Amino acid sequence: MTATDQRTEGAAPDGTDLAADLQRLADVCARVAANIGQVIEGKPEVARVALVALLAEGHLLLEDVPGVGKTMLSKSLARSIDTTVRRIQFTPDLLPSDVTGVSVFNQQTREFEFRPGGIFANIVVGDEINRASPKTQSALLECMEERQVSVDGTTYRLETPFLVIATQNPVEMEGTYALPEAQRDRFLARVSMGYPGPRAEMAMIASHAGGADPLEALHPVTDAAEIRALIDTVRRVHVSPAVQQYAVALVGATRTSPDLMLGASPRASLHLVRAAKAWAALDGRSYVLPDDLTALARTVLTHRLLPTVEASLRGRGPDIVLDEIVAQTPVPSAEPRQ
Length: 338
Prior knowledge:
Elements: H1 3-8, H2 18-39, H3 44-55, E1 60-63, H4 70-79, E2 81-82, E3 85-89, H5 96-100, E4 101-106, E5 111-116, E6 123-127, H6 134-146, E7 148-151, E8 154-157, E9 163-168, H7 181-184, E10 189-191, H8 198-208, E11 222-223, H9 224-235, H10 241-256, E12 260-262, H11 266-282, H12 290-301, E13 306-307, H13 309-313, H14 318-328
Parallel strand pairs: 1-9, 1-10, 2-11, 3-6, 6-9
Antiparallel strand pairs: 4-5, 7-8, 12-13
């Protein structure tokens, strides 16, 4: 990308100043990240992925061992935005209607009226999603992809922004149901929290020593209207044909790898490009670089891949195979825009 290309990217097609909008995006996201940092010590990269999922109009899957702060991250992001938030505790007896809503007969009006379920919010925190039955998990499919709910022949639209943050513990097998591939494919990104460093863990102990909940000290630093404006800014970030082709090449290589029985879907290509646009916007750029795609490849693609039995026995997990694909796929050179 040449300097001329960057100047061309400075103004949006509608005449608005994209550079100014990107600066506003950086300011707002810095405040949200600082809020999250008050609760989750030493995990700025995880907070950044959460912001990418929000700005790219995707959904986030937090997968890690118990007690590392998955739910706290979800709640801190939700509290940082002045918008509607609902928490759904997924359990084996949770019904699909508890998620989507149900039509109830009103004795006074003698008519059926719709009572919205937990999915009707701007930010939905789904705790331990793999504890619900597959039938209940499938209730999220239409909500996450089409941003709507269909009940008794009537369709109800979900408001924007709409973000599902789901958590699951990969080591607890009893009483859990593995997420089906169709469900995992609808998550734009998957991230593992990881254990905190010694300094961060000591800071966490100190902050909880008095019994105070650090979430109570958080106050909203933005609102739904501003997030919608930031999402519109991300949509205007430029992706050149060469970078688009690079994204297709990366995803396509997963489908032909002999170590993978299931490669990434076309939806993965779309999610990778959307995430890269949000990633570039957070860096203050109005254009996507190939490096943005490689930086996000593991986060966006790994949870969609299924290794063959032979590859698993050799210890070649999806992350190792994907790293090799990224290393072997030719990176496009910068081309002047016409």
